[in-house]
Amino acid sequence: MPQMKLGMFYWQCGHHLAAWRHPEGIADSGSNLAHLIELAKLAERGLFDMFFMADSVTWWRGSLEAMERDSYSTWIEPFTLMGALSQHTKHLGLVCTATTTYDQPYLIARHFASLDLISGGRAGWNLVTSGNALEAESFGFEAHMEKTARYRRGREFAHVVRGLWNSWGDGAFVRNKASGLYIDRTKLNALQHRGEFFRVKGPLNVPPSPQGEPVMVQAGASEDGKDLAAETAEVVFGAQTHIEPARGFYADVKGRMAKFGRDPDSLKIMPGLFVCVGRTRGEAAARYEVLQDLIDPVVGLQLLSKRLEWDITGCDVDGPLPELPHDKINSSRSKLMYDLAVREGYTIKDLYRHIAGARGHCQIVGTPKEVADMMEEWVTMKACDGFNIMPPVFPGSLVEFVDLVIPELQRRGLFRTRYEGTTLRANLGLTRPKWS
Questions:
Q1: Alpha helices, H only, 174-326
Q2: Under the phi-then-psi rule, with left for phi > 0, alpha for psi from -120 to 50, and beta for the rest, what region is 321?
Q3: Span 198-234, pLDDT tens digits
Q4: Residue 356: enclosing H or E segment and its boundaries?
């Protein structure tokens, strides 16, 4: 039986759009460090592979009317948070987002290498090319970089970062007090990079960690994104909502790896999964409906506009979606959402209610057995290698998953009963990739 991998996807207050309004929700979740530490400890109790945190580098996501009602507006910067969580956990992987469009490779390489070192080899970098066009103005640009250029920059960025992470060969740090030799310079690999976007001289001034280099994580689903994942990623967070498209995505991405000289087992595909679980189906459904009834229509329309990358706030919510323009920064995920609405005959209101929890990812509302059945089917049918779990409300929904679903998966031999190692690579079953 294949052993699935699990990430705990943190989203402020919880993944449901109305989580902060729920009676059990922690409204100041994004700035409450004690609460975040407890979530990490809970994820480690559940033997999750990683604590994953997304990010945006701008406050702006749409209209002021909607944003004044939205909990996802301010939060602790993820990299800083991961450093704090590393001191309160022992096995849990610590993965967060950093953009290749508005950052520099030397700084990203240095930051994540340092996190990897202080956590004992548990860091991972989620590479994004910044899908939010509004981020441009936060960095003084008049327009967002065109999509194909962002991916060219992202590919070069990843290459430079990995080159810097491989600055030091095994045994480079001699630290011999008797001879006075601190570094064996024959094991120094000083990067000399000159490319389209970057000129970078190594080496990195951070020594390697126990896992060698941080784990590379990505979430792109476009043709450019799948190529980038096949070339550089070790974990991919997918967004397929049904098993057959997920199987197609799985086969597509893994099938592209051979041209880059990579083994398909060196990449774990883990789609997002929103889970609302109860001891009975009725209990689970009731919990979900409580959240659905708390959705603010203004925020619902804003969320849908953001996910579609097209403003629909003036449209009739009881009518169908208008046809979307396919410009250069329209994403594969917006197309998935549009196709879902057409396939299911959803109105605009139906669609924003549908994505209020999972935001375009797969979701399930049911008993522990029903949740485990679905997860088992996806893994055994090669639709994924595991999941990035999206609890509706923190902390209660995570507690329910750990206490109800994890034991069911363990009884079926689908999930670990103890951590395999102390590094993120060891727990994911990944070896350090070769660098050339």
A1: 223-232, 243-255, 281-292, 297-308
A2: beta
A3: 999 999 999 988 999 999 999 878 888 899 899 999 9
A4: helix 348-358
Model confidence, pTM: 0.91
User: CA-CA-CA-CA torsion for 113, 226, 375, 94, nearest 10 degrees?
Assistant: 10
DSSP letter for each residue of 144-211: PPPHHHHHHHHHHHHHHHHHHHTSB-TT-EEEETTTTEEE-GGGB---EEE-SS-EEE---SS---TT
Relative orientation angle of helices 223-232 and 243-255, to the nearest 10 degrees = 60
Q: Which two tokens stand for residue 244?
A: 């057959």
Query: Is-contact 408 4, C-beta < 8 A?
Result: no
The pLDDT tens digits for 228-241 are: 899 999 999 988 98
CA separation for the pair 110, 83 (Å, rounded): 13
Least confident of 55-69, 151-165, 244-258, 383-397: 55-69
Instruction: Please give the domain boundaries of the chain with CATH numbers for all domains.
Output: 5-165+193-280+362-428 (3.20.20.30)
* Phi, psi angles (nearest 5°) of residue 332: -65, -30
CB-based contact 118:214 (threshold 8 Å): no
User: Is pLDDT of 126 > 50?
Assistant: yes
